[in-house]
Amino acid sequence: MSIIILGSRGFVAQSLKNFLIKKNKKPLAIGKSQINFLKENSFDKLKKILKNKKNYTLVITSSIAPAKNLDDHLDNMKIISNIIKGIDIKNVKKIIYISSDAVYSDTKKKITENSLTEPTSMHGLMHLHRENLLKNFFYKKLLILRPTLLYGKNDTHNSYGPNRFMRNLIKNETISLFGKGEERRDHVYIDDLIKIIYMSSQKKITGIINIVSSKIVSFYNLAIKIKKIKKNYLKIKFIKRNGPMHHLGLRQFDNYKLKKNFKSFNFSNMDNNLKKYL
Questions:
Q1: Of 11, 148, 159, 264, which residue is most buried, by most CB within 10 angstroms?
Q2: Is 97 domain-assigned?
Q3: Is residue 161 part of a domain?
Q4: How do residues 101-157 score in pLDDT, each as one tens digit?
Q5: pTM above 0.90, yes or no
Q6: Residue 225 covered by a domain
């Protein structure tokens, strides 16, 4: 079974492409330079590329992320609409959509795939709307993966947490924490997500699965963990908050469904993963 990736320059798309190449799988990664899904005729271009493809898995990562405003949201809807129009349901074996845990409502309870989805962010709303569009057309062949905070050396967003803190360490810069860094979050290493995407392409799994480790760590403890890597004097600065803590200060998950579908899979060690940035 071949794998076609929609997206080529993003964190997930690049990592998946490199992983597949190492396995000699020769993936086809379609980036913006080949098809700009914001263009009206883009779905015709996708149709032509997919026309002679059979029994393939389509991994959708194409998006404007993070979606921060209404314009981003509308552009993301245009992108997914053109992708949907370009897919021939008869030829594709499986569609894997890379979503986000941002679709879930804020709660201090453990989040499962059945938890309430009333997102408080534009980014979460965008992914939820895209998920629903894909379900409407491809639900029998659709697998939605909702990863929590992703980290890894080649992260393209310099997101708050392991990615930014490790770059602070490398540059000998101060780590800045909001409040006291007391928010506790789940983090997933990019290679773990990529392995799960690959295994998913080999299995007859559809529906929704949260990609979460079920382990939480505060941003403060994460900064201390990173500080110990080089055993040097790295300053930690606390910044006064301008508003309430994101997600009520706690984002924890139950990964029962993930373990049920991937019984042999174990998440990699965070301490070892952080050292790979160096």
A1: 148
A2: yes
A3: no
A4: 999 999 999 999 999 999 999 999 999 999 999 999 999 999 999 999 999 999 988
A5: yes
A6: no
